[in-house]
Amino acid sequence: MSVCGEREQLGSNAVENGTIYRHPYCARFISSKQRFCGLMAKAGHSFCVHHLPTEQSEYIFAFCPKCKTKIASDRVDAHLRKCPVRLKEQQITNEIYFWKDINSAKETVVDKTVSLRELSGTQLALLLDKISQAEPKCSSYLSRRSSSSHDDGKTMHSVHVPQRTSESEALQRVAIAEAVQKVRDVFDLSTNSALVELCSGRAYLSAEIMKTWPFSKLLLVDRRSHRFKADRFLRHQSELRRLLIDIKDLDLYKVSLLNKSEVTIVGKHLCGEATDFALKCALSYLKDSTVTFRGLAIAPCCHHACKWSSFVNTPFLETLGFSETDFGYLIRMTSWATTLSTGCTSHGFSSDFAIHTEDMDACRTLSSNDKLRVGRYVKLILNTARVLWCKERGFDVSLEEYTNVWVTPENQLILVR
């Protein structure tokens, strides 16, 4: 007899993990919560309508497409009329700063997904040759960080990485906070100074910056809500507003909080195409705005999540010989820079790879060091394309290593003045 069947017979005497089953209530034990279901059992049954076996249930259940709540299928329409997630989305779409896909591709394009295993030895050798020729053209745009003696031997794959995770994140926030001073010619915080953090998360980057430079206004942008936010003490230091919106739909300078303000924009680890959305959001619509742009500091990451359709400077990649298909392979290679050991510090990679031209999984023949260097070079090429896109719009732009590679392999920062 099943556990549920035994519980039906025992009634109020049924016990599971020390929890007593109460007869009028549902007999379903929820292991994740270590208790019985708290709903009343359906008349004549031992389970509530949600936990009735399929053959005994007269309901067909579905999930709300917005909040994922489990409800009867015939009540989905009624639920949607009062669904809090849908109502919040509807409220955002009515705001003046909402413009659907303003910072993304104008046309809906389905990006092709490719695998490095599809590359033959000949194709891989040709792609690596393009990368090796492009790297010297891009390295001049990167201000490298000089390694110090205390950095020796520290790698992201050390046994102490779990203990150093919070320390690493704190070091990144401090380094970006220091870089904010570089993007402002004169760091004079007036009553109209505003700090905007894109993909803010819990806003601890803003909290770090506000320790040194207390901006009078603070705008936090993220597409979802977070627990344990720094808002609880930031709201006492400045006029704070948080927007739950995707950057691709944000017309930033129409937010009323920024009207006639001196705006500084920051972002820590904007994943993949979020960096491209952020650059367009921050720099494309300044001429029609009433704000004074003072600077931008963005740390890109997760280049494997970039897309050809939303990348800001595909023409530059084409001048280097990379096609849309090549781009799919390039973003896959960027993961080599973060998933392999970061102990190698030399620059440049050898061209005498032992590649078998008939091997359809030729990437296996590359050494770990070669993969690591290739991954770093591809990240540099993609970030350089973004820097040149900003330069074409008349901004003073630099690409810097804002922290050491042992702190994070994603240690490049785009500074716009």
TrEMBL record:
Q: State the Gene Ontology terms under molecular function.
A: tRNA 2'-O-methyltransferase activity; zinc ion binding
Q: Does the keyword Hydrolase apply?
A: no
Functional summary from the UniProt entry? tRNA methylase which 2'-O-methylates cytidine(4) in tRNA(Pro) and tRNA(Gly)(GCC), and adenosine(4) in tRNA(His).
Q: Which Pfam families match?
A: TRM13 (PF05206), zf-TRM13_CCCH (PF11722)
What organism, scientifically named, is this protein from?
Answer: Ostreococcus lucimarinus (strain CCE9901)
Q: InterPro entries this protein is in?
A: Methyltransferase_TRM13, Trm13, Znf_CCCH-type_TRM13
The protein in question is named tRNA:m(4)X modification enzyme TRM13
Per its record, the protein catalyses: adenosine(4) in tRNA(His) + S-adenosyl-L-methionine = 2'-O-methyladenosine(4) in tRNA(His) + S-adenosyl-L-homocysteine + H(+); cytidine(4) in tRNA(Gly)(GCC) + S-adenosyl-L-methionine = 2'-O-methylcytidine(4) in tRNA(Gly)(GCC) + S-adenosyl-L-homocysteine + H(+); cytidine(4) in tRNA(Pro) + S-adenosyl-L-methionine = 2'-O-methylcytidine(4) in tRNA(Pro) + S-adenosyl-L-homocysteine + H(+)
Where is region (Disordered) located? 142-163
The chain positions of domain Methyltransferase TRM13 read: 172-416
Q: Which family does it belong to?
A: Belongs to the methyltransferase TRM13 family.
Q: What is its EC number?
A: 2.1.1.225
Gene Ontology biological-process annotations:
tRNA methylation
Q: Does the record bear Flavoprotein in its keywords? A: no
Q: Which UniProt keywords apply?
A: Metal-binding, Methyltransferase, S-adenosyl-L-methionine, Transferase, tRNA processing, Zinc, Zinc-finger
What positions does the domain Zinc finger CCCH-type TRM13 occupy? 25-52
